[in-house]
Design a protein that fits this description.
The protein has helices at residues 20-41, 47-50, 65-74, 106-119, 132-160, 163-186, 193-223, 229-261, 267-319, and strands at 44-45, 52-59, 81-84, 90-96, 122-130, 190-191. The protein starts with 19 loop residues before the first helix and ends with a helix. It has two domains: 16-43 and 135-303, Up-down Bundle (Multidrug efflux transporter AcrB transmembrane fold), CATH 1.20.1640; 52-130, 2-Layer Sandwich (Alpha-Beta Plaits), CATH 3.30.70.3400. It is an alpha+beta fold and 320 residues long. α1 (20-41) packs across α6 (163-186) and α6 (163-186) runs antiparallel to α9. It is 69% helix and 10% strand.
């Protein structure tokens, strides 16, 4: 029995390349705005990357974040980061790693004593400690992992297709990663190793969608060698549109289920991937194909200019 609504049975005929300049410039503007945003507010690095001690406490009754901060400052830990963790009476308290007292076992005891007094009781659920040097090393290795993955993708796509295809894929991937990081900064999501794993997962997902479109572009260029490149790219994006939407939609549904019922342990992971999958689907359809067309036109212009220059030099040499 066939489902009554089958929207992707026929290939649509959307002219995506008509607004290619808009897709590219709007994406560039959003990336530039993200860099400005990151320079202004920065990222909320977790204990994995900045070092320190993270204390998870469940209080007998909810109190305000300001009251929790007052307790930590009274215990001698100024600059602590306080956030509610799920329920109203559960708090994550990140004690800064540049304070020597943070490294002692009395740190969490003094904080818990103050919280117990303020809330009429407190339960210590979890304590994690990372030294500042280890946190800095993890942060550098995380950035290196992202750069190496993008470089490896450029080399792979270059070998699989051509250099311009690789540049188009890297532009789309960079767009997805940068905008995702910007939204993470706006939402004040804690950047931990779990968040880094989500971003690296996003890179692989977004690349897969882009490769499918580029592969169809290459096949259609062989099949229709006399058609303009703009028409070939439009045809390829339309032919893969159903697959892109269905793949993104199915992954999106799974991530929403994980986000809603997966628990706090995978909450940030699923939230970052939900944002990234939405951006990756958008960039696969609009950004990567538009970037490919712009790069192809630029390569052709350079080739024509070189040919014209060679022709002029040949004529000059014959006259002389």
């Amino acid at each position: 029995m066939r489902f009554p609504i089958r929207p992707f049975d026929k290939v649509p005929h959307f002219d995506f390349m008509h607004l290619r300049a808009f897709w590219l410039w709007s994406s560039a503007a959003m990336v530039a705005a993200t860099f400005v945003l990151l320079a202004m507010i920065g990222l909320n690095y977790g204990i994995d990357f900045v070092g320190g001690k993270m204390v998870e406490a469940k209080l007998a009754k909810p109190i305000s974040v300001a009251e929790v901060r007052a307790v930590t400052e009274e215990a001698g830990f100024e600059g602590s980061v306080i956030q509610q963790y799920g329920a109203d009476d559960v708090y994550l308290i990140r004690l800064p790693g540049n304070i020597p007292a943070t490294q002692t076992a009395e740190a969490e005891n003094s904080v818990m004593a103050g919280l117990s007094k303020a809330a009429g009781g407190a339960e210590l659920r979890r304590v994690e400690f990372v030294g500042p040097q280890v946190g800095e090393e993890l942060r550098m290795k995380g950035m290196l992992a992202m750069l190496m993955s993008i470089t490896a993708i450029l080399i792979y796509v270059w070998a699989r297709f051509e250099l311009r295809y690789g540049l188009g894929a890297v532009l789309a991937l960079s767009h997805d990663v940068i905008l995702t990081i910007g939204i993470v900064a706006i939402m004040k999501t804690e950047v931990t190793l779990t968040a880094l794993a989500a971003i690296l997962t996003l890179i692989g997902y977004s690349l897969n969608e882009t490769i499918v479109i580029f592969d169809r572009v290459r096949d259609n260029r062989r099949k229709y060698p006399n058609r303009p490149l703009r028409e070939v790219i439009n045809l390829s994006v339309n032919q893969t549109l159903g697959r892109t939407i269905m793949t993104g939609g199915s992954v999106f549904l799974v991530l929403w289920c994980l986000f809603l019922w997966g628990g706090e342990a995978v909450h940030d992971f699923s939230r970052i991937l939900i944002i990234g999958v939405a951006l990756g689907t958008y960039s696969s359809i609009f950004v990567s194909s538009s970037a490919l067309l712009a790069l192809e036109e630029w390569y052709r212009k350079m080739a024509n200019d070189d040919a014209a220059s060679a022709k002029v030099e040949t004529k000059s040499s014959k006259k002389s």
